[in-house]
UniProtKB/TrEMBL annotation:
The keyword Nucleotide-binding does not apply. InterPro entries: DUF5711, Quino_amine_DH_bsu, WD40/YVTN_repeat-like_dom_sf. It comes from the Bacteria. This is DUF5711 family protein.
Length: 412
Protein backbone atom coordinates (compact mmCIF):
# COMPACT_ATOMS: atom_id res chain seq x y z
CA UNK A 1 0.00 0.00 0.00
CA UNK A 2 2.76 2.37 0.96
CA UNK A 3 4.56 1.57 -2.25
CA UNK A 4 1.50 2.46 -4.29
CA UNK A 5 1.27 5.85 -2.60
CA UNK A 6 4.93 6.48 -3.27
CA UNK A 7 4.44 5.57 -6.89
CA UNK A 8 1.38 7.82 -7.21
CA UNK A 9 2.88 10.91 -5.64
CA UNK A 10 6.21 12.46 -6.35
CA UNK A 11 7.79 14.25 -3.40
CA UNK A 12 9.24 17.59 -4.35
CA UNK A 13 12.36 18.56 -2.50
CA UNK A 14 13.39 22.13 -1.77
CA UNK A 15 16.29 23.46 -3.69
CA UNK A 16 19.38 24.04 -1.78
CA UNK A 17 19.18 27.47 -0.10
CA UNK A 18 21.71 30.15 -1.02
CA UNK A 19 24.00 30.47 1.98
CA UNK A 20 23.71 34.30 1.82
CA UNK A 21 19.93 34.31 1.50
CA UNK A 22 17.85 34.89 4.59
CA UNK A 23 14.92 32.64 5.28
CA UNK A 24 11.79 33.97 3.56
CA UNK A 25 13.78 36.31 1.31
CA UNK A 26 12.97 36.24 -2.40
CA UNK A 27 15.63 34.81 -4.57
CA UNK A 28 17.51 37.31 -6.77
CA UNK A 29 17.10 36.68 -10.45
CA UNK A 30 20.18 37.79 -12.46
CA UNK A 31 18.01 38.33 -15.52
CA UNK A 32 15.67 40.72 -13.68
CA UNK A 33 18.58 42.66 -12.23
CA UNK A 34 20.02 43.19 -15.69
CA UNK A 35 16.62 44.31 -17.03
CA UNK A 36 16.21 46.83 -14.18
CA UNK A 37 19.64 48.25 -14.89
CA UNK A 38 18.81 48.64 -18.58
CA UNK A 39 15.54 50.46 -17.77
CA UNK A 40 17.31 52.85 -15.39
CA UNK A 41 20.01 53.52 -17.96
CA UNK A 42 17.39 54.16 -20.66
CA UNK A 43 15.52 56.60 -18.43
CA UNK A 44 18.75 58.40 -17.57
CA UNK A 45 19.70 58.73 -21.25
CA UNK A 46 16.18 59.94 -22.14
CA UNK A 47 16.22 62.51 -19.34
CA UNK A 48 19.64 63.73 -20.44
CA UNK A 49 18.46 64.09 -24.06
CA UNK A 50 15.36 66.01 -22.93
CA UNK A 51 17.46 68.40 -20.83
CA UNK A 52 19.86 68.97 -23.72
CA UNK A 53 16.96 69.56 -26.14
CA UNK A 54 15.26 71.99 -23.74
CA UNK A 55 18.53 73.86 -23.20
CA UNK A 56 19.03 74.07 -26.96
CA UNK A 57 15.51 75.48 -27.42
CA UNK A 58 16.14 78.06 -24.67
CA UNK A 59 19.46 79.05 -26.25
CA UNK A 60 17.79 79.45 -29.64
CA UNK A 61 15.01 81.58 -28.13
CA UNK A 62 17.53 83.72 -26.25
CA UNK A 63 19.54 84.12 -29.42
CA UNK A 64 16.47 85.17 -31.40
CA UNK A 65 15.49 87.59 -28.62
CA UNK A 66 18.96 89.15 -28.59
CA UNK A 67 19.07 89.43 -32.37
CA UNK A 68 15.65 91.13 -32.43
CA UNK A 69 16.18 93.44 -29.47
CA UNK A 70 19.87 94.34 -29.50
CA UNK A 71 20.19 95.76 -32.99
CA UNK A 72 19.28 99.08 -34.55
CA UNK A 73 16.65 98.97 -37.29
CA UNK A 74 16.69 101.58 -40.03
CA UNK A 75 13.58 100.90 -42.13
CA UNK A 76 9.89 100.15 -41.69
CA UNK A 77 7.50 97.86 -43.51
CA UNK A 78 3.85 98.86 -43.66
CA UNK A 79 1.61 95.99 -42.55
CA UNK A 80 -1.83 97.62 -42.61
CA UNK A 81 -3.30 101.00 -43.56
CA UNK A 82 -6.59 102.34 -42.18
CA UNK A 83 -7.50 105.50 -44.04
CA UNK A 84 -9.31 108.31 -42.22
CA UNK A 85 -11.12 111.38 -43.47
CA UNK A 86 -9.50 114.75 -42.81
CA UNK A 87 -6.55 112.95 -41.18
CA UNK A 88 -4.03 115.60 -42.19
CA UNK A 89 -5.98 118.40 -40.51
CA UNK A 90 -6.33 116.58 -37.20
CA UNK A 91 -4.19 116.01 -34.13
CA UNK A 92 -3.83 112.66 -32.37
CA UNK A 93 -3.16 111.33 -28.90
CA UNK A 94 -2.86 107.77 -27.64
CA UNK A 95 -5.68 107.15 -25.19
CA UNK A 96 -6.28 103.83 -23.42
CA UNK A 97 -6.55 101.09 -26.04
CA UNK A 98 -7.20 103.55 -28.86
CA UNK A 99 -6.40 106.96 -30.31
CA UNK A 100 -8.09 110.33 -29.84
CA UNK A 101 -8.42 112.25 -33.09
CA UNK A 102 -9.38 115.89 -32.59
CA UNK A 103 -9.70 119.02 -34.70
CA UNK A 104 -11.64 122.28 -34.76
CA UNK A 105 -14.83 120.40 -35.63
CA UNK A 106 -14.88 117.58 -33.10
CA UNK A 107 -13.19 114.71 -31.30
CA UNK A 108 -13.28 110.99 -32.16
CA UNK A 109 -12.06 107.90 -30.33
CA UNK A 110 -10.72 105.26 -32.73
CA UNK A 111 -9.73 101.69 -31.95
CA UNK A 112 -6.46 100.20 -33.17
CA UNK A 113 -7.96 99.27 -36.51
CA UNK A 114 -9.07 102.80 -37.30
CA UNK A 115 -12.72 102.10 -36.49
CA UNK A 116 -14.73 104.83 -34.80
CA UNK A 117 -15.77 104.03 -31.21
CA UNK A 118 -17.59 107.32 -30.57
CA UNK A 119 -17.49 110.91 -31.79
CA UNK A 120 -18.49 114.33 -30.50
CA UNK A 121 -18.81 117.42 -32.66
CA UNK A 122 -18.02 120.96 -31.47
CA UNK A 123 -16.61 124.23 -32.74
CA UNK A 124 -13.24 125.23 -31.27
CA UNK A 125 -10.65 127.58 -32.71
CA UNK A 126 -7.61 126.12 -30.94
CA UNK A 127 -8.37 122.70 -29.40
CA UNK A 128 -5.88 121.21 -26.94
CA UNK A 129 -6.09 117.90 -25.07
CA UNK A 130 -4.98 116.83 -21.60
CA UNK A 131 -5.38 113.23 -20.41
CA UNK A 132 -4.78 111.22 -17.26
CA UNK A 133 -5.68 107.56 -16.90
CA UNK A 134 -9.27 106.93 -17.98
CA UNK A 135 -10.27 110.54 -18.67
CA UNK A 136 -9.35 113.34 -21.07
CA UNK A 137 -10.44 116.92 -21.62
CA UNK A 138 -10.43 118.85 -24.89
CA UNK A 139 -10.42 122.61 -24.36
CA UNK A 140 -10.52 125.64 -26.63
CA UNK A 141 -7.36 127.57 -25.79
CA UNK A 142 -8.30 131.23 -25.69
CA UNK A 143 -11.98 130.26 -25.76
CA UNK A 144 -14.53 129.29 -23.13
CA UNK A 145 -15.55 125.67 -23.76
CA UNK A 146 -14.27 122.29 -22.56
CA UNK A 147 -15.53 118.74 -23.07
CA UNK A 148 -14.64 115.86 -20.71
CA UNK A 149 -14.48 112.37 -22.25
CA UNK A 150 -13.57 108.80 -21.35
CA UNK A 151 -13.51 105.45 -23.13
CA UNK A 152 -17.32 105.37 -23.26
CA UNK A 153 -17.83 108.86 -24.69
CA UNK A 154 -18.66 112.32 -23.38
CA UNK A 155 -18.82 112.71 -19.58
CA UNK A 156 -19.80 116.38 -19.60
CA UNK A 157 -19.35 119.87 -21.01
CA UNK A 158 -17.94 122.93 -19.24
CA UNK A 159 -18.32 126.62 -20.04
CA UNK A 160 -15.96 129.16 -18.46
CA UNK A 161 -16.42 132.87 -17.83
CA UNK A 162 -12.86 133.76 -18.88
CA UNK A 163 -10.57 132.57 -21.69
CA UNK A 164 -8.84 129.23 -21.06
CA UNK A 165 -5.05 129.27 -20.81
CA UNK A 166 -4.15 125.80 -19.45
CA UNK A 167 -6.07 122.68 -18.38
CA UNK A 168 -5.45 119.50 -16.40
CA UNK A 169 -7.70 116.51 -15.72
CA UNK A 170 -7.84 113.70 -13.17
CA UNK A 171 -8.63 110.08 -13.95
CA UNK A 172 -12.14 110.66 -12.55
CA UNK A 173 -12.81 113.57 -14.91
CA UNK A 174 -12.25 116.49 -12.52
CA UNK A 175 -10.83 119.45 -14.46
CA UNK A 176 -8.58 122.32 -13.35
CA UNK A 177 -8.23 125.33 -15.64
CA UNK A 178 -6.11 128.45 -15.64
CA UNK A 179 -8.36 131.28 -16.82
CA UNK A 180 -6.90 134.59 -17.87
CA UNK A 181 -8.70 137.83 -18.54
CA UNK A 182 -7.70 141.45 -18.06
CA UNK A 183 -6.69 141.02 -14.40
CA UNK A 184 -4.87 138.35 -12.44
CA UNK A 185 -5.24 134.76 -13.65
CA UNK A 186 -7.74 132.49 -11.94
CA UNK A 187 -7.52 128.77 -11.24
CA UNK A 188 -10.91 127.05 -11.16
CA UNK A 189 -11.72 123.37 -10.59
CA UNK A 190 -14.84 121.77 -12.09
CA UNK A 191 -16.50 118.40 -12.01
CA UNK A 192 -17.26 116.71 -15.32
CA UNK A 193 -20.75 118.24 -15.38
CA UNK A 194 -19.35 121.77 -15.21
CA UNK A 195 -20.09 122.50 -11.54
CA UNK A 196 -17.45 124.65 -9.83
CA UNK A 197 -15.67 122.74 -7.05
CA UNK A 198 -13.09 125.34 -6.03
CA UNK A 199 -11.80 128.78 -7.03
CA UNK A 200 -8.25 129.66 -6.03
CA UNK A 201 -7.02 133.15 -5.29
CA UNK A 202 -3.83 133.98 -7.19
CA UNK A 203 -2.02 137.23 -7.92
CA UNK A 204 0.89 137.86 -10.24
CA UNK A 205 2.60 139.96 -7.56
CA UNK A 206 1.93 137.34 -4.87
CA UNK A 207 2.00 133.70 -5.95
CA UNK A 208 3.15 134.62 -9.42
CA UNK A 209 1.96 133.56 -12.85
CA UNK A 210 0.95 129.87 -13.15
CA UNK A 211 3.32 128.21 -15.63
CA UNK A 212 1.89 124.71 -15.27
CA UNK A 213 -0.77 122.79 -13.37
CA UNK A 214 -1.47 119.11 -12.70
CA UNK A 215 -4.17 117.15 -10.86
CA UNK A 216 -3.59 113.96 -8.91
CA UNK A 217 -5.20 110.75 -10.10
CA UNK A 218 -8.21 111.12 -7.79
CA UNK A 219 -8.49 114.88 -8.32
CA UNK A 220 -7.91 115.68 -4.65
CA UNK A 221 -4.51 117.38 -5.04
CA UNK A 222 -3.65 120.22 -7.40
CA UNK A 223 -0.01 121.06 -8.14
CA UNK A 224 0.79 124.52 -9.50
CA UNK A 225 4.16 125.94 -10.52
CA UNK A 226 4.17 129.74 -10.32
CA UNK A 227 6.83 132.18 -11.49
CA UNK A 228 7.35 135.68 -10.17
CA UNK A 229 10.11 138.27 -9.82
CA UNK A 230 11.27 139.49 -6.42
CA UNK A 231 14.03 142.06 -5.97
CA UNK A 232 15.12 141.55 -9.54
CA UNK A 233 15.45 137.76 -9.14
CA UNK A 234 13.33 135.06 -10.74
CA UNK A 235 11.47 132.99 -8.16
CA UNK A 236 9.49 129.77 -8.56
CA UNK A 237 6.72 129.08 -6.06
CA UNK A 238 5.48 125.48 -5.86
CA UNK A 239 1.98 125.14 -4.39
CA UNK A 240 -0.02 122.06 -3.47
CA UNK A 241 -3.75 122.49 -2.90
CA UNK A 242 -5.82 119.78 -1.21
CA UNK A 243 -9.59 119.71 -1.79
CA UNK A 244 -10.15 116.87 0.69
CA UNK A 245 -10.11 116.73 4.48
CA UNK A 246 -6.44 117.73 4.76
CA UNK A 247 -7.11 121.04 3.02
CA UNK A 248 -10.57 121.77 4.41
CA UNK A 249 -9.20 123.86 7.27
CA UNK A 250 -6.26 125.33 5.34
CA UNK A 251 -6.40 128.82 3.92
CA UNK A 252 -7.20 128.71 0.21
CA UNK A 253 -6.74 124.88 0.36
CA UNK A 254 -2.94 125.37 0.54
CA UNK A 255 -1.15 122.44 2.22
CA UNK A 256 2.40 123.08 0.96
CA UNK A 257 4.32 126.01 -0.50
CA UNK A 258 7.99 125.85 -1.49
CA UNK A 259 10.05 128.71 -2.89
CA UNK A 260 13.11 128.40 -5.15
CA UNK A 261 15.16 131.43 -6.13
CA UNK A 262 16.79 131.75 -9.55
CA UNK A 263 14.71 128.84 -10.82
CA UNK A 264 12.16 128.72 -13.64
CA UNK A 265 9.94 125.62 -13.46
CA UNK A 266 7.71 125.38 -16.55
CA UNK A 267 6.76 121.70 -16.11
CA UNK A 268 4.84 120.06 -13.26
CA UNK A 269 3.07 116.69 -13.22
CA UNK A 270 1.71 113.80 -11.17
CA UNK A 271 3.20 110.42 -12.07
CA UNK A 272 0.78 108.38 -9.97
CA UNK A 273 -1.38 108.74 -6.88
CA UNK A 274 1.61 109.36 -4.61
CA UNK A 275 4.47 110.81 -6.68
CA UNK A 276 4.70 114.18 -8.42
CA UNK A 277 7.55 116.18 -9.90
CA UNK A 278 8.52 119.69 -10.94
CA UNK A 279 11.13 120.27 -13.64
CA UNK A 280 13.12 123.48 -13.39
CA UNK A 281 15.83 124.94 -15.56
CA UNK A 282 18.61 123.31 -13.51
CA UNK A 283 16.93 120.68 -11.33
CA UNK A 284 14.12 118.17 -10.93
CA UNK A 285 12.13 118.19 -7.68
CA UNK A 286 10.42 114.94 -6.66
CA UNK A 287 7.59 115.10 -4.12
CA UNK A 288 5.78 112.28 -2.31
CA UNK A 289 2.49 112.21 -0.44
CA UNK A 290 -1.24 111.91 -1.06
CA UNK A 291 -2.52 114.45 1.48
CA UNK A 292 0.37 116.79 2.28
CA UNK A 293 3.24 116.15 -0.14
CA UNK A 294 6.85 116.73 0.89
CA UNK A 295 10.08 117.05 -1.08
CA UNK A 296 11.79 113.65 -1.28
CA UNK A 297 14.66 114.23 -3.69
CA UNK A 298 16.32 116.88 -5.82
CA UNK A 299 18.12 115.97 -9.04
CA UNK A 300 20.76 118.59 -9.81
CA UNK A 301 21.44 119.06 -13.52
CA UNK A 302 24.64 120.28 -15.14
CA UNK A 303 23.20 120.62 -18.65
CA UNK A 304 20.47 122.72 -20.21
CA UNK A 305 17.09 121.00 -20.56
CA UNK A 306 15.61 120.84 -24.05
CA UNK A 307 12.49 118.89 -23.10
CA UNK A 308 10.97 116.87 -20.25
CA UNK A 309 8.49 114.00 -20.37
CA UNK A 310 7.25 111.29 -18.03
CA UNK A 311 5.31 108.08 -17.46
CA UNK A 312 3.93 106.48 -14.29
CA UNK A 313 7.40 104.94 -13.72
CA UNK A 314 10.00 107.29 -15.19
CA UNK A 315 11.00 110.93 -15.62
CA UNK A 316 12.69 111.61 -18.95
CA UNK A 317 14.93 114.49 -19.97
CA UNK A 318 16.57 115.56 -23.21
CA UNK A 319 19.67 117.60 -22.34
CA UNK A 320 21.84 119.70 -24.64
CA UNK A 321 25.44 118.53 -24.87
CA UNK A 322 28.12 121.06 -24.02
CA UNK A 323 31.09 121.39 -26.32
CA UNK A 324 29.74 118.86 -28.82
CA UNK A 325 26.78 118.40 -31.11
CA UNK A 326 23.74 116.41 -30.20
CA UNK A 327 21.86 115.64 -27.02
CA UNK A 328 21.77 113.32 -24.04
CA UNK A 329 18.70 111.24 -23.25
CA UNK A 330 18.24 110.43 -19.57
CA UNK A 331 15.70 108.42 -17.60
CA UNK A 332 15.23 108.64 -13.83
CA UNK A 333 13.05 106.42 -11.68
CA UNK A 334 10.58 107.76 -9.13
CA UNK A 335 13.27 107.74 -6.44
CA UNK A 336 15.46 110.07 -8.49
CA UNK A 337 18.08 107.51 -9.52
CA UNK A 338 19.34 107.72 -13.10
CA UNK A 339 18.60 104.43 -14.87
CA UNK A 340 19.56 105.30 -18.45
CA UNK A 341 21.81 107.77 -20.26
CA UNK A 342 22.40 107.74 -24.01
CA UNK A 343 23.68 110.29 -26.51
CA UNK A 344 21.98 110.94 -29.83
CA UNK A 345 21.82 113.44 -32.66
CA UNK A 346 18.83 114.95 -34.39
CA UNK A 347 16.10 117.36 -33.32
CA UNK A 348 12.77 115.81 -32.37
CA UNK A 349 9.80 117.95 -31.43
CA UNK A 350 7.94 115.06 -29.76
CA UNK A 351 9.37 112.78 -27.08
CA UNK A 352 7.35 110.28 -25.05
CA UNK A 353 7.73 107.20 -22.87
CA UNK A 354 5.71 104.16 -23.89
CA UNK A 355 6.20 101.35 -21.39
CA UNK A 356 9.90 100.45 -21.60
CA UNK A 357 10.65 102.55 -24.69
CA UNK A 358 11.38 106.19 -25.44
CA UNK A 359 9.95 107.30 -28.78
CA UNK A 360 11.18 110.51 -30.40
CA UNK A 361 9.85 111.92 -33.64
CA UNK A 362 9.65 115.12 -35.63
CA UNK A 363 8.49 115.44 -39.22
CA UNK A 364 9.32 112.14 -40.91
CA UNK A 365 12.31 111.39 -38.67
CA UNK A 366 12.06 108.92 -35.80
CA UNK A 367 14.32 107.42 -33.15
CA UNK A 368 13.52 104.80 -30.50
CA UNK A 369 15.53 103.78 -27.43
CA UNK A 370 14.72 100.99 -24.98
CA UNK A 371 14.86 101.34 -21.22
CA UNK A 372 18.06 99.24 -21.34
CA UNK A 373 19.73 101.87 -23.55
CA UNK A 374 19.50 99.95 -26.82
CA UNK A 375 19.07 102.23 -29.85
CA UNK A 376 16.24 100.23 -31.38
CA UNK A 377 15.39 102.39 -34.39
CA UNK A 378 16.86 105.29 -36.30
CA UNK A 379 15.17 106.10 -39.58
CA UNK A 380 12.57 107.93 -41.61
CA UNK A 381 8.91 107.37 -42.43
CA UNK A 382 7.23 108.18 -45.73
CA UNK A 383 4.87 110.74 -44.16
CA UNK A 384 5.18 113.20 -41.28
CA UNK A 385 4.46 111.45 -37.98
CA UNK A 386 1.54 112.87 -36.00
CA UNK A 387 1.47 110.20 -33.25
CA UNK A 388 3.25 106.91 -32.66
CA UNK A 389 3.19 104.12 -30.08
CA UNK A 390 4.03 100.39 -29.83
CA UNK A 391 1.43 97.61 -30.09
CA UNK A 392 1.51 93.88 -29.41
CA UNK A 393 3.87 92.02 -31.72
CA UNK A 394 7.54 91.96 -32.63
CA UNK A 395 8.68 95.51 -33.50
CA UNK A 396 5.11 96.59 -34.34
CA UNK A 397 3.89 100.18 -33.99
CA UNK A 398 0.90 102.31 -34.85
CA UNK A 399 1.79 105.49 -36.71
CA UNK A 400 -0.72 108.27 -37.32
CA UNK A 401 -0.07 110.48 -40.34
CA UNK A 402 -1.89 112.42 -43.05
CA UNK A 403 -3.15 109.15 -44.56
CA UNK A 404 -4.73 107.97 -41.33
CA UNK A 405 -3.52 105.00 -39.28
CA UNK A 406 -0.66 102.74 -40.34
CA UNK A 407 0.58 99.59 -38.63
CA UNK A 408 4.31 99.25 -39.29
CA UNK A 409 7.15 96.93 -38.35
CA UNK A 410 10.81 97.85 -37.94
CA UNK A 411 13.09 96.00 -40.38
CA UNK A 412 16.74 96.15 -41.40
Amino acid sequence: MRQKIRDRFRILRDREQDPGQQPGELEHDPTMQELDAQVKDYRKRTRRRMIIAAAAVVLVLVGVFLVINLQTYTSVRIIDVYEAEDAGNSSYREFGDGVLKYSRDGIVLMDRKGEEVWNQSYQMQNPMVSAFGDAAVVADKGGNSMIVVDQEGVKGEIETTLPIEKVAVSSQGIVAAVLHGDGDPQIVCYDAAGNILAELDTTVTGNGYPLDISLSENGQLLLVSYMTVQNGRTVSNIYYYNFGEAGAQAENYEVLTDTYEDVIAPTAFFMDGDTSAVVGNDRVLIYRGQDTPSLQNTIELDKQIKSAFYSPSYIGLVLKNEGEAGYELRLYNKSGSMVMSEKFTGDYSNVKICGMQVIMYGGTQCSVFTRAGVHKFEGEMDEAILEMFPVFGVNKYIVMNANGMEVVRFVK
